[in-house]
Write a structure and sequence with these properties.
Layout lengths: L2 H13 L7 H21 L9 E6 L13 E5 L6 E7 L4 E7 L4 E5 L2 H4 L6 E2 L3 E17 L2 E6 L7 E5 L11 E7 L4 E6 L4 E3 L2 E3 L5 E5 L4 E6 L7 E17 L13 E6 L7 E6 L9 E7 L4 E5 L5 E3 L4 E6 L5 E15 L11 E4 L8 E5 L11 E9 L6 E3 L2 E2 L7 E2 L5 E8 L3 E6 L7 E8 L2 E6 L62 H11 L3
Helix pairs in contact: 1-2
C-alpha cells in the first residue's frame, strides 16, 4: 500500500466523529485526507530541478566587436501573478529592478564592459538575477552579424563536473569557455583539450590547473584550437558556458571560411546528461545540420541511426552531419551531451548557431519560452520551434493554448515511437504543453536572418539522472527519478501502470485538477475515486 494511503488511514480515526459513515463516505474521506496530506507534503518540497528558478548567476563569453552592442537578458514569467526581478552587475555595482508580467518578455540591457569576458584571465564579470517567483532567463548577445543566445540555468541545478562543447576555430577567432563562481572559496580545476595560456601561464593539452573563484568571480579560457571536451570540475557548484567568439561550424576537415557567427550555450552539469536523444533538422535548411556527441566516461558506446557505432572515452567527441530531411535516434551506454550546430553556407539563410539537445528523459511537460530579436534585417527574421513527442500523444499537444494547425507535418523518428515537427512561430513569448501532465515534450527554439541566428532548448528538466540513484518515496512533480529508471514524473497518481513498466504510481507527475478550476469539484472527486487502493 502506498505511503499516502497508510498516512491517511492512520490520521483518519481521530478526525471522524458522529455516526459511522457509509462505505462511500469513508472512501471519500480517506481520499480527501490523503490529498490534503499529499498537498501539504508537496508544499514543503524544494524547487523542481529545471530551467526555471529564482536565482541565476551567469556571464557572457567574448563576442566580436562591431557596433559595440550591449548584451541583454530576456526574462519571461510563467506565473499569472507576474514577477519582480532584480538584475545586478557586481563589477560596477549597477542594479535594475523590473516587473515582468505573465506572457511578457522583459528585456534588460547590461553594460558590456561589466559583463563580457575578455581574453584568458580571471575577472569579475558576473550577472546576478533574483526574482520573487520562478522565471525563465535567456542571455542574448546580439552583435551586428554575430549573434547567439543561451538558456540560463538557475543556481539550484548547477553542478561540479562539466565537459564543454565548442566548434572548430575560424581564422583567428578563438574557442572559449567561461566559469562563474557561485560560492566563496571555490576551487575550479580545468583539464583543457588543447594547449592554452591562462593568466600568462602556458598549459599543455590535458594538463590540469586550478583557479580559485569567489562568488561572482569569473574566468575565461580561450584557445586557437577547438576546446570541445575540456573538463571542468569544482569543489562547489559553478556555472559554465562555452562556444566560440566567432565560428563557421563547418565539419572538421573543411576550411572554416565564409559566413560566421558567435556561438554560446550554458552547459548542463554531467549528472544531468542522458542516454537517449532525438534529432530534428533545422527549418529552412537544405545542406544538413552538424552534431557533436561529447562523452564523460571511458568506453562509452554511442549509436546513431544510419551511422556506424563509435566508442568514446571521457572528453572525446564524435561529430557527424545529418541531412536536412532525416530524423535520427541517438543512444549511448553511458550519459553523453548532444549539441546541434547550424552549418555556415551561402545557400541557406541564417548564420551558425549552437544548441544543446536535452535527452528525452529531460523533456518538459510545460514550456514558457521566448524568441530573440536579431539586429540585422529585422523584417526578414524568421522564428521556429522543433517539437518532439511520442506519436500516440500528438493530438493532445497545445501551443499557446491551441491545438496545432491541422496541416502540421509530423515525421516519425526511425527506431522509436517518437514523432517530430517543425513550426514557424511569431516573435514574442509562447507556451507549450500537453493535455496530460505526464506527457513530456521536446522543444527547441531558434531563428534566422541572413547574417545572424540564435538557438537554444525551449526548456528542460535537470534531474540528476546520471548520478548514483536510490529509490525514494514518490511525490507528484518532484522532478526526482523516484524509481531509478532514468526518467522522472512519468506516471499519473491513478492506480494504473501508465508507463507499462510493471510498477504502479512509482514516479508521479502532477495532477490536472489545479488546471481545471471551472470543474475543480468534479476533477477532485474523480481523482479521489482513482486513488482507491
Amino acid at each position: 500500500m502506498p505511503w499516502f494511503y497508510e498516512f491517511a488511514n492512520s490520521a483518519r480515526a481521530p478526525l471522524i466523529t458522529g455516526p459511522v459513515p457509509s462505505t462511500d463516505e469513508t472512501t471519500m474521506t480517506r481520499m480527501v485526507l490523503s490529498l490534503v496530506v499529499l498537498s501539504t507534503y508537496i508544499c514543503c518540497l524544494p524547487a523542481a530541478r529545471d530551467n526555471k528558478g529564482t536565482e541565476f548567476i551567469l556571464t557572457f563569453p567574448e563576442n566580436v566587436e562591431r557596433d559595440r552592442h550591449n548584451p541583454k537578458l530576456f526574462i519571461a514569467c510563467p506565473h499569472h501573478s507576474g514577477a519582480t526581478v532584480t538584475v545586478t552587475t557586481p563589477s560596477n555595482g549597477a542594479s535594475t529592478t523590473v516587473h515582468v508580467d505573465y506572457g511578457q518578455v522583459k528585456q534588460v540591457e547590461v553594460n558590456r564592459t561589466a559583463v563580457e569576458l575578455r581574453g584568458s584571465v580571471k575577472s569579475d564579470k558576473a550577472v546576478h538575477v533574483t526574482s520573487d517567483v520562478e522565471i525563465v532567463v535567456y542571455g542574448v548577445f546580439a552583435e551586428k552579424k554575430s549573434t547567439d543566445a543561451f538558456l540560463a540555468l538557475p543556481t539550484d541545478v548547477l553542478g561540479t563536473e562539466y565537459f564543454t562543447p565548442c566548434a572548430t576555430v575560424t581564422e583567428d577567432k578563438p574557442a572559449e569557455l567561461g566559469v562563474v563562481g557561485v560560492h566563496d572559496g571555490t576551487t575550479v580545476t580545468i583539464v583543457p583539450s588543447q594547449a592554452v595560456t591562462f593568466d600568462g601561464q602556458n598549459y599543455s593539452t590535458t594538463q590540469p590547473f586550478s583557479v580559485g573563484l569567489d562568488r561572482f568571480q569569473t574566468l575565461q579560457i580561450q584557445a586557437t584550437e577547438d576546446l570541445t571536451g575540456s573538463k571542468i570540475t569544482a569543489d562547489q557548484p559553478v556555472a559554465v558556458l562555452s562556444g566560440n567568439m566567432f565560428a563557421c561550424c563547418l565539419p572538421i576537415g573543411q576550411e572554416q571560411r565564409g559566413t560566421g557567427d558567435h556561438i554560446v550555450e550554458m552547459i548542463p552539469p554531467v549528472d544531468t546528461w542522458g542516454k537517449e536523444f532525438v534529432t530534428v533538422p533545422l527549418a529552412t535548411r537544405t545542406i544538413g545540420d552538424l552534431f557533436r556527441v561529447v562523452s564523460a566516461k571511458d568506453n562509452t558506446l554511442v549509436a546513431v541511426t544510419n551511422e556506424s557505432t563509435r566508442t568514446l572515452n571521457a572528453g572525446e567527441f564524435w561529430e557527424f552531419v545529418v541531412p536536412s530531411n532525416e530524423y535520427r535516434h541517438v543512444t549511448s551506454s553511458e550519459p553523453v551531451l548532444l549539441v546541434q550546430y547550424c552549418i555556415a553556407n551561402w545557400i541557406d539563410s541564417g548564420d551558425p548557431l549552437m544548441m544543446v539537445i536535452p535527452p528525452v528523459a529531460q523533456f518538459e511537460a510545460v514550456y514558457t519560452f521566448s524568441t530573440v530579436d536579431l539586429i540585422h534585417n529585422k523584417t526578414e527574421t524568421t522564428h521556429h520551434v522543433n517539437l518532439i513527442i511520442r506519436s500516440s500523444n500528438k493530438a493532445g499537444l497545445l501551443l499557446d493554448g491551441q491545438r496545432l494547425p491541422s496541416d502540421t507535418v509530423w515525421h516519425d523518428v526511425p527506431g522509436t515511437d517518437y514523432a517530430a515537427a517543425q513550426l514557424d512561430i511569431s516573435a514574442g513569448t509562447h507556451t507549450a504543453r500537453h493535455l496530460s501532465p505526464n506527457v513530456n515534450i521536446g522543444l527547441f527554439s531558434y531563428g534566422f536572418t541572413n547574417t545572424e541566428s540564435y538557438g537554444y532548448p525551449g526548456g528542460l528538466r535537470l534531474a540528476r539522472i546520471a548520478a548514483s540513484c536510490s529509490t525514494t518515496t514518490p511525490v507528484p512533480a518532484d522532478r526526482v527519478d523516484n524509481d531509478c529508471d532514468g526518467r522522472v514524473d512519468e506516471e499519473l497518481l491513478n492506480g494504473i501502470d501508465d508507463d507499462g513498466d510493471g510498477l504502479i504510481d512509482e514516479d508521479v507527475a502532477n495532477s490536472n485538477c489545479a488546471g481545471n478550476r471551472d470543474q475543480y469539484r468534479t476533477c477532485l472527486q474523480n481523482r479521489c475515486r482513482n486513488l482507491v487502493p
